[in-house]
Each structure stands twice: as C-alpha cells, then as structure tokens.
Amino acid sequence: MTDxxxxxxxxxxxGAPYSSQAPQTALSFARAAVAAxxxxxxxxxYGDGVHLASALVTPPSDETHWPNAWARFLTxxxxxxxxxxxxxxxxxxxxxxxxxxxxxxxxxxxxPFSIAGLGEWVEGTVKSTRTLYFHGG
Amino acid sequence: xxxxxxxxxxAYGTWAGREALDMAFSLAAFDQPVSLLFTxxxxxxxxxxxxxxGIDQKSVAKNLAAAPVFGIEAVMADRASCQRLGLDAGDxxxxxxxxxxxxxxxxQFDQTAFSA
Lengths: 137, 116
Description:
- Chain A is an alpha/beta fold.
- Chain A is 34% helix and 19% strand.
- Chain A has helices at 22-35, 66-76, 85-90, 96-101, 119-127, and strands at 8-13, 39-45, 80-84, 114-116, 130-134.
- In chain A, helix 1 (22-35) packs parallel to helix 2.
- Chain B has a 5-stranded parallel sheet.
- Chain B is built from 5 helices and 5 strands, in the order βαβααβαβαβ.
- The longest helix of chain B has 14 residues, at 16-29.
- The chains are: A alpha/beta, B alpha/beta.
- The A-B interface holds A 12, 14-15, 46-47, 86-87, 90, 117-119, 121-122, 125-126, 131, 133, 135-137 and B 3, 15-16, 19, 22-23, 26-27, 30, 32, 111, 113-114, 116.
C-alpha cells in the first residue's frame, strides 16, 4: 500500500473486550488508518464482539474503557458502529426497540452503536475496498 | 470468485462455526457468491449421522444441509485435515468436495473470512 492509495475499510470485530485484545487492536488500526487519510466505512460487531457495545461495561478505573474509547472514535469520525442482532440478542445486548419487542426489563446498547442484521456486513464487504477481521482466539 | 468462508472450529463446544455459517447464508441470501471450506477441527462438521442430543445441541449437519438451498456455490473439505481426523469419504455427508486447502485454492477467491 503506497501513500497515494486511498482505501475504505469495513472492520469486523468478533473478540470481546477484556477477554480478547481484538477491540483494542482494531481501534489502533482504525486510528492509524484515519491518520493516513483512509476511511473507515463501518465497524461490524459479530459473535462475542457485540460485548463492546454494552453500556453496562464497568472496568476498574485504571483500565482503558474500551466501549467508551470506541464510542468516542465512532462519534469523532462519524463512523457507523453496528452490532449483529442475532449475536447481540443471544448475549444479552438489546436496544430500546428489542427491549419492547421481547418485553425485557432493561436495554443496554451504548450510543452511538446500533443493532442491525448481517446485511450490514454484506454491504460492507461489497462497498469497502478492504474488509478486516479482528478475532478473539 | 466471491468469498470463501473458512470454518476451522469444531461443530460443538463453540459457537464460532455456527456464526460463520450464518455469515455464508447471509451472503448467499444477498446474491453474493460464497463457498465454504472446512479445515482443521472444522471437518467434524461433515461427519454424517450426527446425534448431539446427549449434549442438548441441535445437529449442525441439518444447518449445513441447507447450503444448496441458500445458493452456497461449493462445500469443500481439506483432504489432509480429514485424514488427520480419521474421516474418509464414506463418513461424510453428501455434496462435499475434497480439496487441498493451499495458497492456490485461496487465490481463487476475492475475499476470505475465518470463523473465530
């Protein structure tokens, strides 16, 4: 990749924060890509990666708050952060719409993340020039 | 030639393979060309007559049997992995092609995604 190549990236994160390094490696990549004038089209959370979008994550105060760090990046750079709905519901991550639909006692989706289907990932793989995967294992 | 989804995780004990299969079905549902490659511990998906009721699981073979219906272009198994796990053609569900999962195979696809 030379300096003149402009890329647009879809990032897929499948590893959870605090049990894998996937979200922080992905964030380091995203910051470097933006600094090099590439574009991040969207970030898609899949499998255990959806835990990154939980508003209830509360690490000790001397540790990096990865959901908040990612939320800040998404807001600052106007990047869509999407959690797969099937992965999210299985793992206890719901927005207000799903809370109502399933009559749950609470919702816990961190802004500006949203919940949507795998079609968002498919669209990313088609539209972006590169799709990168950040796995937990 | 579209995307190759590589399932290298065992059929039971982890959800990663199932979620990778969902990705393949989703691509096919949106008319994107997609093929499946089972390799490593992932070839355990292909054993026929699976009965995981004893571990309160549904058979992944049933999910996989829907691949042609969804329009998955090919279901492939890595030959060396099958040999290592004692799986010969007679043990395998129908419709699986034995291949050598090498650089030449991967180069036939535009994108590759792994289960993990």
